[in-house]
Amino acid sequence: MGGTFISVKDNDLNLAMQAPSLLNPSMHRNLALSAVSYVDGVKFADAAYAHHKGALGTFMAGIHSAQYGSFTETNEFGDIQGSFRAADYALVLGWSKPLNELFSVGASLKPVYSDYYIYNSFALAADLSATYFDTTHQFTVTVMARNAGVQLKNYVKDNNEPLPAEILLGLSKRLSHTPLRFNLTVRNLQKFNLKYDDPLNLGDVDPVTGRAEQKEIGFFDNLTRHFILGAEVLLSKNFHLRAAYNFQRRKELLLDTRTALTGFSFGVGMKVSKFHISYGRANYHLAGGADHISITTNFSEMTRKK
Q1: Most Cβ neighbours (<10 Å): which of 19, 28, 206, 215?
Q2: Which numeric CATH code is attached to 13-70+83-189+226-303?
Q3: pLDDT, tens digit, for every residue of 139-156?
Q4: Looking at beta carbons, which pairs linking 250-258 to residues 24 or more positions away fall under 8 Å?
Q5: What is the Cα–Cα distance from 16 to 32, expressed in whole angstroms?
Q6: Any idea where the domains of the chain sit in the sequence?
Q7: Predicted local distance difference test score (pLDDT) of residue 2
């Protein structure tokens, strides 16, 4: 769904890993596992479990990991000394509680650890979100602050780095009497200018200097880089089709000569026996993309007596 998806409140625990206010009692005893095969051998993986505790709310524990593979270690002369691996990890401890029939709030605490051989770092981050869910009109709004926190241990001494904090807004609407649901995610509300000045993004040649001028990014181009548009076809309770378009991803990664499907993502979700299985394909660049797969199950269903 374009990389960020915070505006559907159902029983999918993977969504609660993105926005804690989406946690709800229907996720009680749910286990979610997901993996992403990214470009150049990079692997991402998530695991999460949720438990509902009545008036206290719904709780979640999970982990994010990013594995960047094995690297060859050499000295200054190029002699091979061995090998090492690099990875990032984030523990996710989440909570959510409804305020009434329409509103819910949630928070996640995320200790984050980076291990890059002799360089490592530790940070503490938090996600805060609130969701409005109108079941009558099938309309959802989520407002979220993500990755608010601080780096506690620096990669390099006295070189503190900020966390990638951002404010997001997500909206979804299912059209009445149809299987269609549309989604809009707005990212980086705290920062309007998302321009990336690519020195290779050249335009017209100056007739005086003979040099090609760098293309200017206009207001509308910059504005749309905040948007991710998505659509779902809910053919049945157990079978969904999904697609999304990430404006920023396409603007920054497409090739003018062959635009292809850069920025688009497609997926399918289905229930097989007691397992919900989802697959998605995100197109980052003409050179490659990422394959996503997730499996969710409920322990209550697995142990339920016939």
Answers
A1: 19
A2: 2.40.160.60
A3: 999 999 999 999 999 999
A4: 251/221, 251/224, 251/225, 252/196, 252/198, 253/284, 253/285, 254/285, 254/286, 255/285, 255/286, 258/286
A5: 10
A6: 13-70+83-189+226-303
A7: 83
